[in-house]
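Homework help board

Subject: predicted structure for assignment chain

Our instructor gave us this sequence and asked us to write out the predicted structure in token form, then describe one feature. I got the tokens but I'm not sure how to describe them. Can anyone check?
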Amino acid sequence: MPTSAQSLLLPRQLAYYYQQIPNPEAGAENAKPSGYVCGVSGRNLLPEVNFCQDIRAWRARLERAGVKVVKAASFSGRSIRDHIRYARKIGYPVVLKPVIRNTLFEEYIKDIKNDAELEFLFRQSRELKKQKASDLSASPYAMTRLSEDHIDEHGRKFLPLSVRYMVEKQQEGEQLRLIVAFGKVVAVLTKPAGAKQWQQSADIHESYEAVGRKVAKVLQGMDFLRVDLIVDNPTEPANNDNYVVIALSEHLKCYKLISDHFDATQAILEQVAECKMPDLSKEATIHVELSGVSNGQRLKQELTDVTNVLALALKLDDLDEVTGRVHFELSGPTWALASLTWIYANGLGINEVPTSVTVS
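My token output:
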């Protein structure tokens, strides 16, 4: 960084620097950063994405820019009492989530109504059972294992005590999701309280799109963002009393929209890719190689089950139990092929997790 620069240090090796302050009395927090420095892990070659990985980092940036975020605080695994004291302060129900989220899978537990539930779920969520996505597929900073796992007197393994969890005030209201590509809001979805499916919505006040654009501007370098909010009424102007940002991610979660909003999903992807895409229902064939497989027969059964669900044709060419390598061919709709390879690339909801996935 330039020697004359003023800097702002954030969690997880993020640092912004400011070379010129337009209004020195206003302070660095009101100036536009000249640039940033970010530690980059071996698992992620896009340092900008790390802005979204640590909840504390993006919360700090948005708060300093005047964007309202949900009331929350984080604590390490060394003291469950701190979590409980804070939950009492903000009032139940609360949401419990890891401070460092997984790149693709976001774990959280909501509707926690009292001290006993919070203590039980806190301990349970930290136990390493190799059944949660965060245990299987670490995000860039989530599970670097710079400190040792905690082992209790019964031999059970838990996340290192330094790993932090966040207690968040559970908000009531309508969920609003903004999909931002290249600084422009390209899709708006809503989910009323109690609803299970997202709905497309054009009937929102333009001020919420302005919030989405502001968030994208604050997070330098992020071309694609999903901004989730809780709002009182999306048709009324946004102000600090009627909305909060509850989540932020570089992952747009288009896979959750494709069955209900096929045309809209394809339109979103075309805007993100800045080009016309082939029809997602078009038939295609791919060849896949998985390495590091520990149980070939279990993998064979899992592949058979999931391809049946996705209506894909499966042809197993080679299954080497000794080397843990398997080759197979898949044929079917493009969206189904993408879904299966995404699942196996990230170890989500499966028992047999390969160490590498090659698709051609």
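Reply (TA_rk): Your tokens look well-formed. For the description, you could write something like this. The radius of gyration is 22 Å. That's the kind of observation they're looking for.
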